[in-house]
């Protein structure tokens, strides 16, 4: 048999201890003209063999008389010496001799929270890039990251993504991923059981990546702050990676030691802001697709325009539409989408100059910055004039306030209102355009 012959050749090429540990457990589970599939006990085992001994295996296969075979690795049920199989529960999983017995400790991960599922926009690009760099062990952003964001903006998504990436791409990494509350509870158990030396060893000597969520919860916990500060000093001195997440900026967390506060901010400090309009569209599209929900661009834009809170509100809207679709056995229409959105955002929003300005900008596909600019191009000037006309018609704001929203003085507001009023009287196209915008604004904003 080809694999048996290959193993005999490998036995002559590599030391007996390595052969016994890494080659002997492999089984050939599939062989055809193009590939050979070798099955090992687990993901870590296969990743290590592929990284360290693939070249030896390919050379030995060629010497055994078969050239050009693609070698693939697999793991799972049916594998000899698989520690997950019945009868092997008490056996320890194979590990590198140089790797200490202390293994990674990782909180339960959400399978949907990966880098591929994280929608990147202007408000979160730096945070995503920094997390990705640390996950890939890229030191270009430093070795310590403090990530701040209020609830529902994606900081847990990014921290889960880091853990997923490390588990899948570098399974030998000793990652300790836990919340601040879990860290405190672990330390309290260590104090009560007189095993604080084990606690220190775990985080000082057997940790490659430390990821602590909700570090703001350590306010007032002076002992935990002191221990974590010591851990941070040791890890950064040894060029390990550390990530903290918090709902509060480090400078604003109450009741923490100034030394600990300084250490939290010793690396890159970044934040995630609420997603902008474009990012909300990307998020809605992705979540609708993942839910098997076919939404038109009109519905997606309507949701993005009206749901401006945290990302969980966008998820809630998708779930609500999907539920109504199934219960009513009908495809989503505008009435259904509007009803779900109103349930989430609490009904109609109050019209303001800024709301009208942003609405007009989206309808004419120009940016707010362009409307506020000094540009006199018709493609910019006309939406600006329409904004001032609509704001005067639909709000009680003073001319000065209307002008301030578009970076103009009150005399320009008066002129713009007169221009649009005259255009409506003279030109049916302008009148129709204003009527269409008014109807759409009523449907979406009132």
Query: How would you sum up the global shape?
Result: extended
**Sheet with most strands:** 6 strands, parallel
The CATH architecture of the largest domain can be named as 3-Layer(aba) Sandwich
Spans where pLDDT lies below 50 across 5 or more residues: 77-101
> Which CATH first-tier class of the largest domain would you pick?
Alpha Beta
The CATH superfamily of the largest domain appears as P-loop containing nucleotide triphosphate hydrolases
| CATH fold call of the largest domain | Rossmann fold
SS-based class = alpha/beta
Overall structural domain count: 4
Could you give the distance between the termini? 76 Å
Lateral arrangement of strands in the main beta sheet? 4-6-7-8-5-9
Strand content: 5-15%
User: What is the CA-based Rg, rounded?
Assistant: 30 Å
Give the rounded overall mean pLDDT.
85
Q: Could you tell me the number of beta strands?
A: 9
Helix count, DSSP H or I runs of 4 or more residues? 19
What order do the SSEs take from the amino end to the carboxyl end, as H and E?
Answer: HHEEHEEHEHEHHEHEHEHHHHHHHHHH
Helix residue percentage: 40-55%
Account of the protein in words:
By secondary structure, the protein is an alpha/beta fold. Helix content is about 55%, strand content about 10%. The strands form 2 sheets. A 6-stranded parallel sheet has the order 4-6-7-8-5-9, with helices on both faces. The protein has a 3-stranded mixed sheet with strand order 1-2-3, covered by helices on one side. It has helices at about 1-15, 15-25, 45-65, 125-135, 155-170, 180-190, 195-205, 220-235, 260-265, 275-290, 295-305, 310-330, 335-345, 355-365, 370, 380-395, 400-405, 410-425, 430-445, and strands at about 25-30, 35-40, 70-75, 105, 145-150, 175-180, 210-215, 240-245, 270. It folds into 4 domains: about 1-75, 2-Layer Sandwich (GMP Synthetase, Chain A, domain 3); about 105-270, P-loop containing nucleotide triphosphate hydrolases (Rossmann fold), CATH 3.40.50; about 275-345, Helicase, Ruva Protein, domain 3; about 355-445, DnaA protein, C-terminal DNA-binding domain (Chromosomal Replication Initiator Protein Dnaa, Chain: A, Orthogonal Bundle), CATH 1.10.1750. Strand 1 (about 25-30) and strand 2 form a beta hairpin. The protein contains 19 helices and 9 strands.
